Amino acid sequence: MKFLHSSDADFESKFSQLVRRSDNDMSAVMPVVTGIIDEIRKDGDSALFTQISKFDKFSVTSKSDIIIDVKEMEAAYNSLDNALRVALNLAHDRIKSYHERTKPSDWTYKDEHDILLGAKYTPVDRAGLYIPGGKAAYPSSLLMNAIPAIVAGVKEIVVCTPAPGGKVNPLLLAAMHLCGIKTAFKIGGASAIAAMAYGTATVPKVDVITGPGNIYVATAKKLVYGDVNIDMIAGPSEIGVIADDSADPRHIAIDLLSQAEHDEIASAFLITPVEAFARAVQRHVEDELKTLKREPIASASMRNKAAIIVAKDLQECFKLMNELAVEHLEIATNDALSYMDEVKHAGAIFFGHFTPEAMGDYIAGPNHTLPTGGSARFYSPLGVENFMKRSSIISVSRKGIMHLGKPCMQLAEAEGLTAHKRSIAVRLED
């Protein structure tokens, strides 16, 4: 992993490379993904079945081959080890409780001219959730995507997940049952995004697509956006840690590795004002790597995508971390919450010595579908509002149009829109 000092002569150059860390260069896969989408738009199920057979390596001749039966979900849930079932239920309940508190409510008020104004929030009719398979199965992603949609009031939820060889991970099936999923398919990659965006005879067309995925999934979401809404364009996972010597260096080392084990191109950053602490974390990373089941993946990530930065003070730590705008940010200092206002850009913020990022991944409650690659500068975590639409409410009384009609007509006339002006004038004449 890189070891940098903010006082180094070439620091700005090296740090700018970290800021531009995104691996979402879609140009290489764009032609392939465009072809996949075009085929499904043109040929529907026929193209979809061919693509699944090609990419997921199992024969598909009819829709029954890709439909996930609800009985299979129920059986998987009932077969869970009791302790795992309890943990899954606890995670479900905590995620639901948190998201219920974030659901927007309709509101109205009357102004001084007796005009009623406000907003109405309505769930989309149908949501599509993409749950990745990738290098591991992620039932937690099913919970994090399905529960906000359920809380929003979405009536129909469609799930797509890759099933190499035609097999779906049992824990993912169990999570589907727990969330009450009724419509799910064994479809992965760009094919899944295209099928949900445009619909086929088998897969319903949805209004919004959420969920993370690889570069093919991200590219497909970007291409279908506008025909369907999406949550965000997600890239490789990442963690940033601001810590001083009040933290345990071994804890911080393991926290960095918790993202590195996701993917060879995941990123991990530590920024600290204490060099001795930085060196200690570096040593613990080397030791802890040897204990990981996914050591080759984590090693590649730490070798190519990780950095430790020694800053002059905590103030500079926050300045640099805000430029990185990381997906997950840990603040491992005493009185960590006192630094809340210093954070400008982060997907999720983990305060204190007993808040490893993994708590947010699984069981704390807030969503773990987060902006990556610096997009925390303008994106928010997935939430209930991603599955809802806001409509403006306007009700003008006779008193209201008498007060505001003439200035409104003047604005319409200035824009040359005669019918706009007349629509007000005829009411003032009555």
Question: Secondary structure elements and their pairing?
Answer:
Blueprint: E1 2-5, H1 11-19, H2 30-43, H3 45-55, H4 70-78, H5 82-100, E2 107-110, E3 116-123, E4 126-130, H6 139-152, E5 156-161, H7 170-179, E6 183-186, H8 189-198, E7 208-210, H9 215-224, E8 229-230, E9 238-243, H10 249-260, E10 267-272, H11 275-289, H12 295-305, E11 306-310, H13 314-324, E12 328-332, E13 348-351, H14 357-362, E14 388-395, H15 398-414, H16 418-429
Parallel strand pairs: 1-11, 4-5, 4-7, 5-6, 7-8, 9-10, 9-12, 10-11, 12-13
Antiparallel strand pairs: 2-3, 3-14
Helix pairs in contact: 2-3, 2-8, 2-9, 4-7, 5-6, 6-7, 8-9, 10-11, 10-12, 15-16
CATH superfamily of the largest domain: Nitrogenase molybdenum iron protein domain
Counting copies of identical and different chains, the oligomeric state is single chain
Specify the number of helices.
Answer: 16
The name of the CATH topology of the largest domain is Rossmann fold
Shape by Cα distribution: globular
Which percent range describes the beta-strand content? 15-25%
Roughly how many Å apart are the termini? 76 Å
Query: What ranges have pLDDT less than 50 throughout 5 or more consecutive residues?
Result: none
The CATH C-level name of the largest domain is Alpha Beta
SS-based class: alpha/beta
Largest sheet: 6 strands, parallel
Q: Helix fraction?
A: 40-55%
Q: Based on DSSP secondary structure assignment, what is the total number of beta strands?
A: 14
Kindly provide the radius of gyration, computed on alpha-carbon positions and rounded to a whole number of angstroms: 25 Å
- The secondary-structure element order is EHHHHHEEEHEHEHEHEEHEHHEHEEHEHH
Indicate how many domains the architecture comprises.
3
